[in-house]
Amino acid sequence: MHQFPKIGILGAGQLGKMMAIAVAKWHLPLSFLDQSKEFPAGSLSHSFTEGSFKDYQDVYDFGQSVDVLSIEIEHVNTEALRDLATEGKIIHPAPDKIELIKDKGLQKEFYRNHNLPTSSYILMNSKEDILKALETRELAYPFVQKTRTAGYDGKGVAVIKGVKDLEKMMDAPSVIEDLVDIKKELAVIVARRPSGEVKAYPLVEMEFHPTANLVEFLLCPAQVNQEISDRATSLAIQVAESMDICGLLAVELFLTNDDEILINEVAPRPHNSGHHTIDSCHTSQFEQHIRAILDLPLGSTKLKTKGIMINLLGHPDHTGPAYYDGLENALSIEGVNVHIYGKAQTKPYRKMGHISIIGDDILAMKEKAKKVKQLLKVICK
Ligand code: ADP
C-alpha cells in the first residue's frame, strides 16, 4: 500500500476543506493549523492544531509535526517557514515565493524584471507621497491604488479617477497602477510539480459584482477566440515557470480593449477561479494541488463539461449565525451543484459557499445561475 507523507496545511478555510474532500478518496489525511476547529476544514481534518498561521512559534511547531507543508492563504509567517525549509522540511510553495506573491509591489517588480506584461506602475510609501506626486505631476489621474500587503477580494484596492475619489485613498505602502481599459477579466490555473511537469486548466472568464468586487459569474471556457485563449494560457505557464512554482498558481489576467493580455496578480494555491473544476474537470484544482506538492503525476485538466460558478455570499445587511434558504429548490434544477462551506457566522459579502452549474450551453447555464441566485440565500434568523 502506498504510504502518503503527512501533509500539513496552514489555514482551515473553504480551500482547505475542499482539499480535504478531494483527497479523502485516497484516504489521505490532512492536518490543519488555524484558530478554531469550527472553521470549514475542521470537521474534515485528520488532526487539527489550534493556533495562528501568522505566529512564528505556532507555524514552526506545526511544521515540525508534518512531512510536507502547504498553504491555503498567503498571509502566513514565512520566517518560520524559512527556518523549517533550512532544516529540510518540504514546503510548497517555497517560502520565498510566498513572500514574493503576498507583496503586490514585489510581484510587480518580478513581472517587470522578467519582461512579463503587466500594467505600468510606480511604488509609493504613503498617502502623503501619492498626494505629492499628484502635485508635482509625476502622477496623473486616473490610477489604481493597491496596498502592497494584506489586500484580498478587492479590499485594499481603490480606483482614483479624480479629486473626488481622493477620500478613498488608503495610507499605506502601495502600488500605483495605470487604470486598464478592461474588456474581460480572465484567469488560468497552472499546476506544476517539483519534477517540472506543468498543466494548465482551461481559460476562465470572470464577471465581477459591481460593488462587492467579488466574482459574480465565472464562465468556463472563457468566451474568447482560440488565439486569445492560447496566448493567455502560454503566458500563465510562463509566469509559473519563471517563478519556479510548485503546487498551483492561479494567474489573473486582464484582456484589454486592444486585445493585449496583462498579468494582474497571482495566487500560489487553489483559487476562487478554479472552483468549477470540482464538477467540470477530470481533476479538481484541489486534488491537483495535492498531487503537485507530493510530486505525483498531474491529473488531466480537460473539461468534462462546461461550467459556470457563482459565489454564495453573505447578505449585505446580515451579520450573525448563518442559515440557508431555498436549498431544496436549487437542488431540484438539473446541473446545479451546491457547495456550502459551513461557516457559522454570515457577514456582508462573506464567501459562504459556491454553486457550479454544468451543461453544454453557456447561455442556458447562465439563466440557471441567475435563477439559483434568486432561490438560494444565506439568511440570518
Ligand atoms: P484583490 O487582490 O483584492 O483581488 P485585484 O488586484 O485583483 O485585488 O483587484 C480587484 C479588481 O479591481 C480587479 O479584479 C479589477 O476588476 C480591478 N482592477 C485591479 N487593477 C486594475 C487596474 N490596473 N485597472 C483597472 N481595474 C483594475
Describe the structure.
This protein has 381 residues and is of the alpha+beta class. The chain folds into 3 domains: 7-91, Rossmann fold (3-Layer(aba) Sandwich); 120-178, Dna Ligase, domain 1, CATH 3.30.1490.20; 182-379, D-amino Acid Aminotransferase, Chain A, domain 1. Helices cover 28% and strands 29% of the residues. It is built from 11 helices and 22 strands. It has helices at 14-24, 56-64, 78-86, 95-102, 104-113, 127-135, 226-243, 277-280, 285-293, 327-331, 362-375, and strands spanning 7-10, 30-34, 47-50, 68-71, 90-91, 121-124, 143-147, 157-160, 174-178, 182-192, 198-200, 204-208, 215-220, 247-256, 261-267, 306-313, 320-321, 323-325, 336-340, 345-346, 351-359, 377-379. The strands form 5 sheets. Strands 10, 11, 12, 13, 14, 15, 16, 19 and 21 form a 9-stranded antiparallel beta sheet that branches. Strands 3-2-1-4-5 form a 5-stranded parallel beta sheet, sandwiched between helices. Strand 10 (182-192) and strand 11 form a beta hairpin. Helix 1 (14-24) packs across helix 9 (285-293) and helix 2 runs parallel beside helix 3 (78-86). The longest helix has 18 residues, at 226-243. The termini are far apart. The mean pLDDT is 96. It binds adenosine-5'-diphosphate. Adenosine-5'-diphosphate binds at residues 119, 144, 146, 151-154, 156-157, 177, 179-180, 182, 185, 208, 213, 252, 264-265.
